[in-house]
Design brief:
Layout lengths: L11 E5 L3 H11 L5 E5 L2 H10 L4 E5 L7 H9 L9 E5 L4 H9 L4 E4 L4 H74 L2 H31 L8 E4 H12 L8 E6 L6 E4 L1 H17 L4 E9 L3 E8 L21 H7 L5 H11 L3 E7 L3 E9 L11
Parallel strand pairs: 1-2, 1-3, 3-4, 4-5, 7-9
Antiparallel strand pairs: 6-8, 9-10, 10-12, 11-12
């Protein structure tokens, strides 16, 4: 059946009855409504007409020689092209069993003979309107599905483009950072102390831009479902030392004090070490960024079920009404902080995605003016993998 909208004033109505007098009566009642009327005097003829020119509604006599109305309706409802055409049975049968049988084979309504004109007009109008609504709903659902598919395709294309661009940008930036290192060494050896400060600024800016590009690359990989986990067993205390080594240059301004609580005997852990490292670096970097002066505490604990990593600071804190958005991409609790402290607003989003990928979760507690505390809980993922403890 056509999925085009029904023009109720020109709706196509097929009348099927083996008695010509009944056809004449139906025609007389319906002709003034503007419907496009057609008729058939047998089930076989009705099917030929329906397949050739599908109507918007069928008035179908139940008791006909050869193929009766029940069989005609059963055939129509078994085929995709005709199954949505509403069928109203016309019958002199009043037994409830017959009515139930009609509904079971797919009829939408019954009209009892002798036919009353007001009843016929009301039922035909009602079911044509219902059919029009059904068709309109299907049309809107199809449009919605097409729009969703187009949006998803555009999103995948965007993610792929950003990932490719980010990758292409990282190569020259790494070269800038590397060559700046060499020039700094040569300038120091040659005594050109006046340009070392400028070279340091160039290198700092390049590293900041590289960090932004890395964040964009990570989030686009996540959105494109191209990010994978690579679990392995690693020594937790060694990983913490590596994280501290990376973050320590950010603490050299004398305004921050880093406190680390990680027992040397904490042992090994089986998960994606690179992602754990990235999570901790992002959390510590945020703590440094949003703590103008104060203490940052990294605490690591293990239980029988999970490993817990906690980063607490004494920084500016997060308003309670903003806690629900901080893990959303490209957001920060206050846009003024974005301007003051910089960043993409992707660090916490990446942390959450990484936690989800490792079947863990991240939570936050914060109070404005007193600081924030982020807690990451990661379960032991592989029951067959030995988790040793030193």
């Amino acid at each position: 059946m056509s999925e085009e909208s029904i023009d109720l004033k020109n709706a196509k109505v097929l009348m099927v009855d083996d008695t010509p007098a009944n056809i004449d009566l139906l025609h007389k009642i319906l002709s003034n409504q503007g419907y496009k009327l057609s008729f058939a005097t047998s089930g076989e003829k009705a099917l030929k007409i329906i397949y050739r020119t599908p109507p918007n509604l069928i008035l179908l006599d139940v008791m006909m020689p050869g193929m009766d109305g029940f069989e005609v309706c059963r055939i129509l409802k078994s085929q995709k092209e005709t199954q949505d055409i509403p069928v109203i049975f016309m019958t002199a049968l009043t037994d409830t069993v017959d009515k139930v049988k009609g509904f079971n084979v797919g009829a939408v309504d019954y009209i009892t003979k002798p036919i009353q004109s007001e009843e016929l007009l009301a039922r035909v109008s009602t079911h044509l309107k219902l059919q029009a609504h059904v068709i309109e709903l299907k049309k809107r659902n199809l449009e919605s599905e097409q729009a969703r598919f187009a949006a998803e395709s555009a999103s995948r294309a965007k993610s792929s483009f950003l990932a490719n661009m980010s990758h292409e940008l990282r190569t020259p930036l790494n070269a800038i950072i590397g060559y700046t290192d060499l020039v700094q060494e040569e300038a120091s050896d040659l005594g050109y102390e006046t340009i070392i400060t400028d070279l340091t600024k160039i290198q700092t800016a390049a590293k900041q831009l590289l960090g932004i590009i890395s964040d964009v690359l990570d989030i686009t990989k996540i959105e494109a479902d191209k990010m994978e986990t690579n679990p392995s067993e690693f020594d937790v205390s060694h990983l913490i030392k590596d994280v501290i080594t990376v973050i320590r240059p950010s603490l050299m301004d004398g305004k921050h004090f880093l406190k680390v609580n990680c027992p040397p005997e904490i042992g090994t852990f089986y998960t994606d070490a690179i992602k754990v490292q990235q999570i901790l670096f992002n959390l510590l970097n945020n703590a440094v960024k949003f703590t103008r002066q104060g203490t940052i505490t990294l605490t690591v604990n293990r239980s029988a079920q999970e490993m817990t990593f906690q980063v607490a600071d004494t920084g500016i804190g997060i308003p309670a009404n903003k806690l629900s958005i901080i893990f959303q991409p490209f957001t920060q609790a206050d846009s003024s902080h974005t301007r003051e402290f910089g960043g993409t607003g992707l660090g916490l989003t990446i942390c959450k995605h990484y936690c989800d990928m490792m079947e863990g979760h991240i939570t936050v507690e914060s109070e404005v003016g007193k600081g924030s505390k982020f807690t990451v809980r990661l379960p032991f993922q592989n029951a067959t993998q030995p988790i040793s403890s030193k």
